[in-house]
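[stage:ingest] chain + small molecule (FE2/S2 (inorganic) cluster)
[stage:ingest] validated
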Amino acid sequence: MYLRNAWYVACTPDEIAAGPLGRTICGDRIVLFRAEGGNVSALEDFCPHRGAPLSLGTVREDGRIVCGYHGLVMGGDGKCVGMPGQRVRPTIKSYPALERYGFVWVWPGEKSLADPSKLHHLAWAESPAQRHAEKAWVWWVAYRKPHRAGAGRTSTCTKGPCAGVAP
Ligand code: FES
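[stage:predict] done
[stage:export] tokens:
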């Protein structure tokens, strides 16, 4: 049982820069991509033709996602706009999505309740110093062990709270 009427972090914007991304949120398989106008779109990760994951497809220059199996084309609103050899235009489930605080957020619950103002204000995410500290922490977790063993990093951080921390 999931608390569905809430905003969930789905990914960071760079994770959808090169193509669609599949994620499971509250048990739902969701594909995230940059749709028309550069807006983030979150759709059911299920092609209505034969069920292939849309996250294995590609995103066209116009922001429409193309199924990698037979070429069904889906808009960011979940409406099919093209299917080679067929006249049907099925629709799949779409999810409210937004970008804020350096993350892509998805609302897996009731669409009518998806209010962006319900997203908690994350002051730390708007502070350049805090963001730098966060990146430093990620760096520390990812690299400390190899450095202890004498491998890897050769430079020292030069800005933010971790300035001067040696490798
Ligand atoms: S399964 Fe997607 S187009 Fe056929």
